[in-house]
Specification:
This protein has helices at 2-7, 9-18, 20-34, 49-58, 70-78, 113-123, 140-151, 170-174, 181-191; strands spanning 40-43, 64-66, 82-84, 100-104, 129-134, 194-201, 217-218, 225-231. It has 234 residues and is an alpha/beta fold.
Amino acid sequence: MIEGFDQYAQEYDAWFLENPNVLESEARLVASTLRGGGRILSVGCGSGLFETIMGRDFGITVSDGVEPSASMAAIARKRGMNVTEATAEEFDYPQGIYDTILFNGCPSYITDLKRVVEKVYAALRPGGRIVLVDVPKESTYGIMYNLAKALGTWEHPLLEGVFPPNPYPIELVRVARWRTTAEKIALLETAGFRDLTYAQTLTTHPLYSDLNVEDPVPGYDKGDYVAIIAVKPQ
């Protein structure tokens, strides 16, 4: 899984830059979850693209990251981030240091998400927050990605006329495991998190999601990119 991101680090950024309205919509969603979030750790920070946007466009500082891909981490460091190279499972989460621990776009690339959620719960101070942002398995994007994964390609008659002009690199689709929103809620609540809230964006079909920028709306019933915010009780 890490090898895919090492090999396709440049393609990851290029996809977002080729889909600027999707990027802006997703950035607005992430920013909405981080305002007033105190000191933030971004796990699976990738190239640091979103973290850079948070600081530049929203005045939200995200300086610390965790990223298993050496190629991605190198780009993030060039963008000014402090990055530890480790998987989300292996990382030794500091106790009581961070107010918010963010997982943006990476939960589907974490093999043992249950273990990670439990480790974050143990590390957060009371009142601290975990933020999971990802494509839900049940969403239009999730179903489309899983079909492309099963077929092994975007170039198949079953997908003709369905996927957007600049689809997510198939190499990164192949190594993902999307989870339903219900699965992630269950993991969070089992670990002890409470006061779950939700926000969503990309509410049109993937063919049209890059035509306009969307502001996030509450809930998780219609968005192809969904944030779950959960709190460790006081």
